[in-house]
Amino acid sequence: MLKNIESEIEMIISKSQVPEDSIHSKNTREWVLKLKPEADMALQISALGHDIERSIEQRKIKRENFTDYDEFKKAHSQNSATILQEILLKYDVNQDFIDKVVNLVLLHEFGGTPEANILKYADSISFFDVNLPFYFQRNSEEETAFRMKWGYKKLSRVAKSIVRNFSYDNIKLKALFNKIVSQHSNNL
To answer: What is the Cα–Cα distance from 133 to 76, expressed in whole angstroms?
Structure first.
């Protein structure tokens, strides 16, 4: 049954208009397992589906509808949690499992519990690991710098040390990354 849930989530995300969404989904799950090898299936399913709303164009939360980036991210989390709940309700899983997945996805941008923090760190690490080069291609240097700062500040010391080891082929992106990381590593 869990394999069917995973397959449905992966199928939905594979239809995203953002090319890296499928890779980011799986990569976030991989980072969850690196940060917490004993992660239960609720945390793993949460990692896999935490951004699912971005893959459903007619239900996607649009950033331009928000003046505050944190409010945009809260709406994104709520929408992804709602969609995952709809998916899980079609399967024979217990309500505690559904509630845990929904709660983790609701908290994935800001954390608040030990497991939600793991998901938050894994998501942010994956942004730097997978999404950043694509993000840089689609956005201005200023927007990319903003997004890097926002994501980097969310990381734990351990997660920051992981991200600091990343490198990029694009010379401009590499320079911007090094600048942002050096400016925001003082709070280690």
So the answer is: 22
What pLDDT, in 10s, does the model give residues 10-29?
Answer: 999 999 999 999 999 999 99
Does residue 135 sit in helix, strand or coil? helix
In angstroms, the CA 59 to CA 41 distance is 26
Residue 26's CB is within 10 A of a number of other CB atoms, namely 17
Name the token pair of 6.
């995973």
CB 51 within 8 A of CB 81: no
Tokens of 95: 């309500």
The angle, 0 to 180 degrees and rounded to 10, between the axes of the packed helices 21-35 and 41-49 is 150
pTM of the predicted structure, to 2 decimals: 0.95
Numbers of helices and strands, H then E, in the chain:
10, 0
- HSE-CB of 42 using CA atoms within 13 angstroms: 17
